[in-house]
Amino acid sequence: MSETPTPFHFTLGQISLHILNDGIFMLDGGSVFGRVPRTLWERVVAPDHFNRVPAAMNSILLEAAGKRVLIETGYGDKLSAKEQQIFGLSRPQGTLLDQLALLGMRPEDIDIVINTHLHGDHAGWNTRRPPDGGEAVPTFPNARYIVQRLEWENAAHPDELTAPGYPPVNFTPLQERGVLDLVEGDVQVLPGIRVVMTPGHTAGHQSVWLESGQAAALFTGDAALHGSHLERINWVGAVDNFPITSVATKRKLVEEVMRRRASVLVTHHPFPGLGILVQPEGEKRPRFEEIR
Questions:
Q1: Which helix (H) or strand (E) holds 106?
Q2: What is the fold of 8-290?
Q3: What is the rounded distance in angstroms from the CA atom of residue 80 to the CA atom of residue 269?
Q4: What's the confidence (pLDDT) of residue 1?
């Protein structure tokens, strides 16, 4: 596997953004592609000898309205050695915090953190344990953390199926310290940053629209696990709790992305996960074209 060149800078209208990465982990191909036969999906992503496919953990750092905003926080540093081995976690370019440091930023410099949802691979750096091994504290001590209220309620009160995906250490300390902002539905966070409900992967999942004038980009979160999921909206991962809802959500997103000619950033697509959807002449479905 080649090294991941990060951070990746791009411009959206008047907004300057950096795509960061907290590494790569390995997911079972069936988790990513669900009921799609391997003979089809392996043409898109080649599995390893354990039938696993790589999943990047892409994040965005941007400045808007005088605030520094971080979207998504990867796996963090609280996994045990055994968990790291199980997930096949690798960080050839360091952690999310290492990459912030490359940009001359410390955790204290972040004003807002947005989680699309609270699964462990999206909210891990929300908190960290101090060097003395005490209770976990917010990694970004001056930040407000934005999550959908429904997502928080489901994470805080999971059932037998969903509990393993929601390590409480990633979000309970935020509530205890009063830095968690629970929003409901579509919300304008700052000028140029808007969260929208995109249920399917979880009931309270949200994606993020970034907008500057006529330019727009969508950060999907797990509304799409891979760029190919935007080409084929019926490709739904087994990790989606509500697959039929996922299809409807993706249909709506794809239509809006193409209407607005927006860029798309897919969290788990190979770094930087940035692309556009184009409609080839004579073909029924769009194509996700990577921008590198």
A1: none
A2: Metallo-beta-lactamase; Chain A (3.60.15)
A3: 25
A4: 37
